Amino acid sequence: MRQGHQTWVFPSRPVILSTAAIGGPFEAKGPLGEDFDITHGDLMLGQDSWEKAEKVLLEEACDKALEKAGLQKEQVHFLLAGDLMNQIITSSFSARTLGIPYIGLFGACSTAMESLALGALLVDSQSADYVLAATGSHNGAAEKQYRYPTEYGSQKPPTAQWTVTGAGAAVVGNKGSGLRVHAATIGRIVDMGLSDPFNMGAAMAPAALSTIETHFRDMRLPHDHYDLVVTGDLGKVGHQILSELLPKHNVDIPLDRYIDCGKLIYGDNPTVWSGGSGCGCVATVTYGHLLRRMREGEWKRILVVATGALLSPISYQQGESIPCIAHAVAIEAEHPEEG
Amino acid sequence: MRQGHQTWVFPSRPVILSTAAIGGPFEAKGPLGEDFDITHGDLMLGQDSWEKAEKVLLEEACDKALEKAGLQKEQVHFLLAGDLMNQIITSSFSARTLGIPYIGLFGACSTAMESLALGALLVDSQSADYVLAATGSHNGAAEKQYRYPTEYGSQKPPTAQWTVTGAGAAVVGNKGSGLRVHAATIGRIVDMGLSDPFNMGAAMAPAALSTIETHFRDMRLPHDHYDLVVTGDLGKVGHQILSELLPKHNVDIPLDRYIDCGKLIYGDNPTVWSGGSGCGCVATVTYGHLLRRMREGEWKRILVVATGALLSPISYQQGESIPCIAHAVAIEAEHPEEG
């Protein structure tokens, strides 16, 4: 059900029956290493290409989420998935393996919440009993496609981010117990004219601001409603920029309750410059770390704002700036007194 | 509302308030030339790259559809769009121009019906009052990205298809008069192991069969229910294959009521080998030609089955076969006695 211009409120509060997070070797050694369901010591995952390794990550995330939900893939009505690869081959080939009816999405790093938002809508509107929302990325595959050959060893500025090797998936259903999806806000493109692909945090921060502002306005909520507002993946640079933009635009989210997935995943490791990025960043941090802490009672309600930089190497080479977007999903712990 | 495993039936029957089709110079000279709202004599559309020309096609389709619906873009709640370009830049840059909250999709040539199906679901579930579903392609942009440089003049086998230069858009709303979206079936990946990107009709035909079979089973409809079953874009080769597969699988659609968008758009022109393809093929043929004829009373109900070959140049180079999908949407003329 629509509320305001671009927000959906889900009266049935679809249930997140399970989530799974898979991580690569570098992610496993980071501060959130314990939060992954599976981690890999081999960046190739035993495959002969990075693209095939990325597919294994996504398939493992889907399989693990299904296993944790106690569901067979035949019981899941739709898979909603997307990734950074050209023609989202990671998702489409995983959809082939799974055999689940498939809705392909592209929102770059915002795909994690684009898929969760649409999946919750399908469940809420009784268009599906169970859906699987999934996304992932692989550092090697992303570097090869978007940037220079890694063998070239090109240096990067401190505003650059490190694409996460990892994947996350969530099973959403119309019954059962678990965290619940309360609402979702679909973003619009915000493009402030920035064109530096090594500073995507700065490019994406205004898109996150737009969606956060819209969410609170559409929902008519006080700015301190959520225990945590999480962006992903602005990194240190984008987190700082958004921390300054929010009060300037009178969005008075307590700044000690505002965190970013790109800052969290690698902690203070200076080798990743501004922090993590990629579809796997917000997916693994949300599905592995944040929702686990919510289940443990640390937070009651959070707003996850996944940002995406919708550029391509061609659009950059042709002198275009970076169109950015952010999609937000509100997740709340089940209240026994309401259940 | 879900019916069967993978079909949505829309009780409110969302209204297709308007459609628009834009064509390139070659398409304008074809047998459906008169059905386009706008045609261009210049393949570059006055732009300095094919990618930018493709964006103009999509933006024109969206603008024209909005104009014909008598709506301002501010009244449209969501744009659902996708295309063949890496990272669907055509759609994302058009979403920037339009400023409408944006749901990015990827289903290759199936995107036309993926976007219409999801758009109708948003309207039916009261998650939107008006949506815009749009997709397009450009021959030059697709050749450059998927195949050889056109200057190379490489020859193609007779099973190859010609990517359509064109775009189509539809405005769907919860009130007003027009054709109505009755139901939609979301496909699953079908991959018969074919890997020849110059014979995508053969690769995609089994995916179309799967979705058509599922649609009739989920809907419990007799096989002669529709006045027309339309695939897009199997071309002559794929149309012939599916015409043989359907009776073999006891799907007794009268074969004189089965046509293909890839066959229609260029007629018998032998220079396009097996026929048209690309996101713009099914979009322009459906939104320009077929729905126009429905409005004129030629057909009362049609099923449009948009097929997509979800390969990428990388997946092909790495020896993978072609995962295919088809999404179907049932469109019916308004019956005054029911209205």
From TrEMBL, chains A, B:
Pfam family name, one: SpoVAD
NCBIfam families in the record: PRK08304.1, PRK12404.1, spore_V_AD
Protein name from the UniProt record: Stage V sporulation protein AD
Molecular function GO labels: acyltransferase activity
InterPro entries per UniProt: SpoVAD, SpoVAD_sf, Thiolase-like
Region forming the signal peptide: none
Superkingdom to which the source organism belongs: Bacteria
Gene3D superfamilies in alphabetical order: Stage V sporulation protein AD
